[in-house]
Structures are given as C-alpha cells and as structure tokens.
Amino acid sequence: MFRYLYRKTTYVIDDNVLRISTPLKSLAINIDSIKKIRRGKFWVESRRNYSAAYIKLRIIYDRSSYVYVSPEDEESFVNTLQAINPNIEYSSERGLKS
Fold first, then answer.
1. Nearest to 60 by CA among 80, 38, 81, 77
2. What are phi and psi of 39, to 5 degrees?
3. What is the mean pLDDT of the chain?
4. Which is it for the CA torsion 8, 87, 28, 96, positive or negative?
5. pLDDT by residue (tens digit) across 59-96?
6. Cβ–Cβ < 8 Å for 68, 51
7. Nearest 5 degrees, angle CA 30-CA 40-CA 8?
8. Could you tell me the pTM of the whole model?
9. By C-alpha distance, which of 3, 49, 58 is closest to 27?
10. What's the burial of 89, exposed, middle or buried (CB within 10 Å: 0-12/13-18/19+)?
11. What is the DSSP code string of the chain?
12. What is the C-alpha separation between 82 and 13, in angstroms, rounded?
C-alpha cells in the first residue's frame, strides 16, 4: 500500500508556488523561499518524505525547513524552479548517475 500511495504523488508548479500532494498529505512551498536543492541518497522520516525513491531531491526552504521529492524528470523540475528563482543552489552527491 505504501508504494501505491507514493506513486500517486504529484508536483505542480503554479505561479510562484510548488504544490506537492499525495493521497495522505500535501504541502505548498513558496518557490522564492527555496534556498538549495541537493540530489542524493537519503533515508528520511515519513513526515518530510514525498518520495518512494532512494535517490531523491532534498529541497531546503525558508530558514531550515526541508522536504524530499522524486519527480520523474528531475532535470526539468530543477530547471523550472531555477527559472522562477535563480538563487536556488543545486548540487548532487559525487558518483550519482543521472
């Protein structure tokens, strides 16, 4: 059931807001508040995890809030966010293949 629920995760960029939704929870993040996006291998707690993948993106926003996501097309997702907020820093763990 867990995998079913997280396969139904949607990421919508609407104006200046990133909306992340699953059947059990949702979150809206102001894109101007995003500081960093890091691609890596993360084991995470369930309340911040909007991803069923082991390799995912960690989005750091506001002062110290963060969330984990795994959009199907990571490159397009990151490029779209950076087009809205060019101050977003992006990095990837060494050795990870795209």
1. 38
2. -95, 130
3. 83
4. positive
5. 999 988 999 888 889 999 999 999 999 999 999 876 66
6. yes
7. 60
8. 0.80
9. 49
10. exposed
11. -HHHHHHT-EEEEETTEEEEE-SS-EEEEEGGGEEEEEEEE----GGGEE---SEEEEEEETTTEEEEE--SSHHHHHHHHHHH-TT-EEEE-TT---
12. 12
Pairing type for strands 89-92 and 65-69 reads unpaired
Beta bridge partners, 28, equal 19
The length of the chain is: 98
Farthest-apart Cα atoms in the chain, separation? 38
- Reading the block at residue 17, the tokens are 């807001």
